[in-house]
Design a protein that fits this description.
The complex is a heterodimer of chains A (about 450) and B (about 180).
Chain A lengths: L1 H34 L5 H15 L3 E2 L4 E2 L2 H11 L2 H18 L4 H27 L4 H27 L4 H33 L4 H50 L6 H15 L4 H13 L9 H4 L7 H8 L1 H12 L6 H6 L20 H16 L10 H11 L6 H13 L2 H8 L4 H10 L1
Antiparallel strand pairs in A: 1-2
Helix pairs in contact in A: 1-4, 1-5, 1-6, 2-3, 2-4, 3-4, 3-5, 3-7, 4-5, 5-6, 6-7, 8-19, 9-10, 9-15, 9-17, 15-16
Chain B lengths: L2 H13 L13 H16 L4 H18 L4 H18 L5 E3 L1 H4 L7 H5 L5 E3 L13 E3 L5 E3 L1 H17 L6 H5 L9
Parallel strand pairs in B: 1-2
Antiparallel strand pairs in B: 3-4
Helix pairs in contact in B: 1-7, 2-3, 3-4, 4-7
Classes of the chains: A mainly alpha (about 450), B mainly alpha (about 180).
Chain lengths: ~450, ~180
């Protein structure tokens, strides 16, 4: 496996900084004679203007910025051949090299991949012309080929310079840009054919079309970005709101300050460890924060009673799962957290409360939080007793595994705790004041 | 030389709401004046034209290099570079396409005779003809320009915008931002 990776990076190191520039120089040299005839100068001039314009008229999509250069280059290939495309690529590279901090290796690799793309696409175009396929169809095929070759070679460069996987880079690029990219290419194809039919002044309406598109995209993605920001704001507000809730729950029960935060923390660690998606992980964290919300409905005398609880009082305490469930159900928010709140005291063997669920009837979220809850209850210091040592708490969990706790999850949890550096573990367990601090932050 | 472009740039800058409030500080402005002086000398005394123009070009380059932190100046450098390649590969003079130049209202005899201080005639043996003065530009002042001149004109336009305190940053345009901050 390791060997394979090494060979791959060696191949990349051969292609990107060496192969690309050599190919660029060869193609470049073979096309310079095409630039010399008198009748070509006007075209070169026009494409210089177009290239400068398109280099600095970007089309912004959500994550990336596309320039129109590929469309310009593509139209050059369709109308006149590779020599115009390469000219445009050279003008762009030269301009950017002067404008930006110049990195020769990257610049050469970049122009290499672009020039190879142009050359290959031109070759394909000639082949299709030879087969006398209708320009309508062949333009589409060539546009697709341009896009494909370009992102594959470009991703090779990126994966070499930033040490990412080639295939995943291709996939990412394809995911982010394909449609806009293809739209531009198809527009360029249509534009070129119009210029061919009606002459150079067709460029003016085409430019107007591109500029308008750029504006439309700009507006569209601007509002999308704003929406995105709003969603983030609401999320962060929610988060602060929840933290406040958790703090107020913990504040009522003075024996367990910071408890909900810690349970949420461990729940998140387990969820991450078993490879849940980031949304699920977040959900479990919030579930942890709210799991004891029902304690709001338990009288102070019982909740804060020193000494042993009578069976009746214990029954009342047990009610907190159902009370919490009702509160959240009525709130109509966070419905996805209901199982965590109701079932975090269920046991695998069916001896838990409130519903006596068995095994897989217990929702995953509740099974995860049950372990986190039990662990924190054992190790945290209480005013009337010192917390158990971590090792003993883990032994308890091991003992309960299969009867009280889900076996697999318990295994994961024990591993997480054992891997963790001692100081970090201690600092999390001692985190009593944190909830108060966050409460204050949330209020301010 | 670029009077019409510069005037046009000023008009655009005025429309954009630009005013001259403070002058951008250029380093080693003297180099620019030396270069202009040398060019005037070469026009007065054509026999030494080639040498004087070459030296004048070097002074411009020095001025550009000292001020390369401005983006506009770097656009100038692209133009300077392209023109310099054309001039150096053709014995110190910029070849000009006679067919295009005939449209101009100037006397072309010095160019044809080889006594013009700046230009020579474009022939079959000219190197890199596509970088020389081959494009006829009819208005506002008729002239024959090279590809490098496009960049010089663009640079002049951007520089005037900066003078008028409304700089445009091409790099920020590329990143999708509208206008530049002053730098």
């Amino acid at each position: 496996m390791r060997l394979k990776v090494e060979t791959r990076s060696k191949i990349k190191a051969l292609i990107v900084p060496i192969g690309f520039p050599i190919a660029a120089i060869l193609i470049f040299a073979s096309l310079v004679p095409e630039w010399e005839p008198r009748e070509h100068w006007g075209i070169l001039f026009a494409y210089t203007l177009l290239t400068i314009f398109s280099t600095f008229a970007p089309i912004r999509t959500l994550n990336t910025i596309l320039t129109l250069n590929n469309a310009v280059i593509f139209s050059g290939i369709l109308l006149f051949g590779a020599w115009v495309g390469v000219w445009s690529a050279v003008v762009e590279t030269l301009t950017l090299a002067f404008l930006m901090r110049f990195n020769p290796v990257k610049a050469f690799a970049n122009i290499g991949q672009l020039v190879i793309t142009i050359w290959a696409v031109d070759y394909l175009k000639n082949a299709l012309d030879y087969l006398s396929i209708s320009p309508m169809i062949s333009d589409l095929i060539i546009a697709g080929a341009y896009w494909f070759i370009n992102i594959v070679l470009c991703a090779l460069g990126i994966s070499y310079f930033f040490q990412t996987g080639w295939f995943s880079t291709v996939k990412n690029m394809a995911k982010g840009t394909t449609l806009t990219y293809l739209l531009l290419m198809v527009m360029a194809g249509i534009g070129s054919r119009l210029v061919e039919l009606y002459g150079i002044y067709t460029v003016i309406p085409m430019m107007a079309a591109f500029t308008t598109m750029s504006f439309v995209f700009h507006q569209y993605y601007d509002s999308l970005n704003k929406l995105h920001q709003k969603v983030e704001e609401v999320k962060s507000f929610n988060h602060r709101f929840l933290t406040t809730m958790a703090a107020s729950i913990d504040a009522r029960d003075r024996y367990t300050s910071g408890h909900s935060q810690r349970v949420a923390h461990w729940g998140r660690e387990i969820a991450k460890d078993i490879g849940l998606s980031s949304e699920k992980v977040e959900e479990i964290y919030v579930g942890g924060i709210l799991h004891d919300i029902g304690k709001i409905g338990i009288e102070d005398e019982i909740l804060n009673k020193k000494g042993r609880l009578t069976p009746e009082e214990y029954d009342k305490i047990k009610q907190h799962t159902v009370i919490g469930y009702e509160i959240i159900l009525q709130a109509g928010m966070f419905n996805e957290l209901l199982p965590a709140i109701r079932s975090h005291h269920e046991r695998i063997d069916g001896k838990g409360y409130p519903d006596g669920l068995v095994g897989d009837e217990i929702p995953l979220m509740a099974k995860i939080l049950a372990i986190s809850d039990a662990f924190d209850a054992m190790v945290a210091d209480r005013p009337y007793r010192k917390g158990l040592p971590v090792e003993e708490a883990l032994n308890e969990i091991r003992r309960g595994s299969g009867t009280q706790f889900d076996e697999e999850l318990a295994g994961h949890f024990i591993e997480i705790i054992q891997r963790m550096p001692r100081e970090e573990l201690e600092s999390i367990i001692q985190q009593e004041t944190q909830s108060q601090k966050q409460l204050q932050e949330a209020i301010h | 030389m670029l009077l019409d472009v510069i005037c046009l740039s000023f008009i655009v800058a005025l429309i954009r709401g630009g005013r001259i409030r403070e002058f951008p500080k250029f380093r080693n402005l003297a180099f620019l004046f030396v270069s202009i002086g040398l060019q005037i000398c070469s026009a007065i005394y054509p026999p030494a034209g080639g040498v004087l123009i070459s030296i004048a070009y070097l002074f411009i380059l020095l001025f550009l290099i000292f001020n390369r932190h401005y983006e506009d100046i770097r656009i100038f450098m692209v133009g300077w570079f392209l023109n310099a390649i054309a001039i150096w590969s053709n014995q110190g003079k910029m070849p000009i396409d006679i067919e295009q130049a005939k449209k101009l209202p100037y006397d072309l005899t010095p160019v044809i005779n080889g006594t013009n201080f700046k230009h020579s005639v474009l022939t079959e043996s000219t190197n890199l003809p596509f970088l020389t003065d081959v494009i006829y530009m009819p208005s506002i002042i008729p002239r024959v320009i090279s590809i490098g001149d496009i960049f010089i004109m663009l640079g002049a336009f951007l520089l005037v915008q900066r003078f008028m305190n409304k700089p445009i940053s091409l790099l920020q345009l590329r990143e999708g931002k509208s206008y530049a901050t002053k730098s």
